[in-house]
Amino acid sequence: MALLASWITLRVIPWLKARTNRQQQEYLLSTIRILVYAAEQIYGAGRGSNKYQYVENELDKRGLNVDAAAIEAAVREMNLLKSWETSLTTDLNDHREDHDAETE
User: Fold this and answer.
1) 14 domain-assigned
2) 40 belongs to a structural domain
3) Does the residue 88 lie in any domain?
4) Structural domains of the chain, count
5) Residue 39 neighbours by CB under 8 Å, 6+ apart
6) Residue 59: pLDDT above 80?
7) I need a surface site. Which of 14, 37, 59, 103 has the fewest CB within 10 A?
8) Distances (CA, A) of 13 to 26, 29, 41, 73, 89
9) SS3 of 90, please?
10) What domain range is 22 assigned to?
11) Cα–Cα distance measured from residue 23 to residue 40, given in angstroms and rounded to the nearest whole number
């Protein structure tokens, strides 16, 4: 997660700041994230080129032109969050099983 934050800070944020004001930056990043999550929901696992095309088309419909790095950063963020959620859920389940075994 720290690596992603560093990459976004070094690449994506400066690119956005050079082209937009703060409110536009927040709108753009939020829109990209929403579309990336929507593409994942619509297309499921795999089919990366279809999902990428979906995000690009939806951004274009909204009159938004973004660098591919911004889309890739949102995808990476989503994947890291999903991985973190899976890991956390597994840890919690293991903890519950250990606790249940101790109380029996």
Assistant:
1) yes
2) yes
3) no
4) 1
5) 50, 51, 52, 54, 55
6) yes
7) 103
8) 10, 10, 26, 11, 31
9) helix
10) 2-78
11) 26
